[in-house]
Specification:
By secondary structure, this protein is of the alpha+beta class. It folds into two domains: about 5-185, GAF domain (Beta-Lactamase, 2-Layer Sandwich), CATH 3.30.450; about 200-405, Hypothetical protein af1432, CATH 1.10.3210. About 50% of the residues lie in helices and about 10% in strands. It has helices at about 5-20, 25-40, 60-70, 90-95, 120-125, 165-200, 200-225, 230-245, 255-260, 270-275, 275-285, 290-300, 345-360, 370-380, 385-395, 395-405, and strands at about 40-50, 55-60, 80, 100, 130-135, 140-150, 160. Strands 1, 2, 3, 4, 5, 6 and 7 form a seven-stranded antiparallel beta sheet that branches. Helix 13 (about 345-360) packs antiparallel against helix 14. The longest helix has about 35 residues, at about 165-200. The radius of gyration is 23 Å and the shape is elongated. The chain binds ligand C2E, succinic acid (SIN) (3 copies) and fe (iii) ion (2 copies). One succinic acid (SIN) binds next to helix 1 and helix 6.
Length: about 425
């Protein structure tokens, strides 16, 4: 429970914090958890406007999450709904008004909107009080809807949202809307860089990089929790890891179409050229100014190293492209990095990238079925991959599966 003065201080602090988050998914998570904390709401959702629809983009539910046990994540599926006056969120987006509803199941028949209780039925949850507000950007355009559910009093009883909660959460929504818009722009910029880089159908690329990034973030978070790394450090790291992971193959910008799009197995010579994408990627971030640049270079350079030392590019100075003294074989070629010599983020993205590459159709191969892909990941534990991270990957397989559902491949033709 926040008293008023603390609330104001917290609001200012959150404004600063959310402005430091660059990634959209992480931002939605932060916005929702802070809004829930401010108003003691048990659950909540964020809908983002996409074209003429509202996309259900993020959900939290403390009661359902607690039932799952410690450190487990709530799994939800995304869906889109039309912006019209029939649903609560649709009404709010359509009219730009706040709806403060005492009991979702007692909405008057005279109103155009009603509550969709199908999720309650599925989950066994009981929605009661709901505060649903439009998120408007600085040009007063509606970019989405923030919905808070089941306000609690000090004893944990469900109560209605107060009239005085409304301006607080509206103010908060202004910060959130501006930050979300910025994050959407960052993501668009990154996606443009990537589609330029991969010189492929951007549809294929978009889903692949989103999944690789989301898998990497989930693996990292589970690993960091296991190592008892404090949550605020985890949050900062997740944010830059996600973008770094999205850019893991950005060095493919320099690889010719003839190789990149070759619908057959590469020759040894061609594969040598292809391997260069790791070094080129790292070079794009040479004047690293931020943690984000540094991590992007680290991921690009190290995502094809293998735990047993048989990966590439190995011990090279990525600026000069020379092998590092003392780390060469008899022919003077660089040795591969081995085990924990490979930076953590490289080891994480390796698993994420290969798993997704195996499950996806490529110009040079068909998609493998999931079971077979999982079997490879398991078999390669201690060979290609860090065994501890493989174990974590299997621990969070339900989360991994929900990520792949969230970013489906668009039809390729
Ligand atoms: P990618 O398609 O994103 O694949 C990433 C990594 O996933 C590969 O790294 C490899 O470790 C794994 N992988 C993908 N498909 C398979 C598969 O069918 N079997 C197995 N066992 N592993 C697989 P790798 O090999 O270092 O390749 C790096 C990149 O080089 C690939 O990225 C792709 O862009 C390109 N590439 C690799 N092989 C070929 C090929 O035969 N033809 C073409 N056109 N491109 C290739
Ligand atoms: C959650 O925090 O409940 C889910 C996180 C995510 O899906 O991004
Ligand atoms: C709605 O806003 O109508 C959807 C609410 C929900 O089902 O959670
Ligand atoms: C504000 O205008 O209240 C803050 C929004 C922002 O800085 O993005
Ligand atoms: Fe790669
Ligand atoms: Fe890749």
């Amino acid at each position: 429970m926040f008293v008023k003065k603390d609330r104001l201080a917290r609001l200012l602090q959150v404004g600063v914090e959310i402005n430091q988050i660059a990634d959209l998914d992480l931002l939605l998570e932060k916005v929702l958890s802070e809004a829930r904390k401010l108003l003691d709401a048990d659950a909540g959702s964020i809908y983002i406007k996409e074209d003429d629809k509202l996309k259900f983009s993020h959900a939290q539910n403390e009661t359902l999450r607690k039932k799952l046990g410690p450190d487990k994540k709530l799994i939800y599926t995304t869906f889109s709904m039309p912006i019209n006056n029939k649903s609560i969120a649709g009404f709010v987006a359509n009219n730009g008004v706040t709806l403060n509803i005492k009991d979702a199941y007692k909405i008057s028949d005279t109103l155009s909107y009603s509550f969709d209780g199908s999720y309650d039925k599925l989950s066994g949850y009981h929605t009661q009080s709901m505060l649903t507000i439009p998120m408007k950007n600085s040009r007063a355009e509606i970019i989405g809807v923030l919905q808070l559910i089941n306000k609690h009093d000090d004893k944990g009883n469900i109560i209605s949202f107060l009239k005085e909660d409304e301006p607080i959460v509206r103010h908060f929504a202004i910060y959130a809307a501006n930050a979300i818009e910025r994050a959407q722009m960052t993501r668009t910029t990154i996606m443009r860089m990537i589609s330029m880089a991969e010189l492929r159908d951007p549809k294929e690329t978009g889903a692949h990089v989103n999944r690789v990034a989301a898998y990497a973030v989930e693996i990292y978070e589970a690993y960091a929790k296991k190592k008892k790394i404090p949550q605020d450090k985890i949050d900062v790291q997740r944010d830059s890891l996600r973008m770094a992971a999205m850019l893991h193959d950005v060095g493919k910008v320099a690889i010719s179409d003839l190789i990149l799009k070759k619908p057959a197995k590469l020759t040894d010579e061609e594969f040598k050229v292809m391997q260069h994408h790791t070094i080129i990627g790292a070079q794009l971030f040479i004047d690293a100014r931020s943690d984000f640049d540094e991590q992007s270079a680290e991921v690009a350079l190290n995502h094809h190293e293998k735990w047993d030392g048989s990966g590439y590019p190995g011990y090279v100075d990525f600026v000069t492209e020379k092998s590092l003294p003392g780390h060469t074989n008899k022919e003077g070629l660089p040795l591969g990095k081995k085990g924990k010599e490979i930076p953590l983020l490289g080891r994480i993205v390796a698993i994420a990238d290969v798993y997704d590459a195996l499950c996806s159709k490529r110009v040079y191969k068909e998609a493998w079925d999931k079971e077979k892909a999982l079997q490879i990941i398991r078999e390669e534990s201690g060979k290609h991959f860090d065994p501890e991270l493989v174990e974590i990957f299997f621990d969070i397989l339900d989360v991994i599966n929900s990520v792949s559902e969230r970013y489906p491949d668009e039809e390729l033709e």
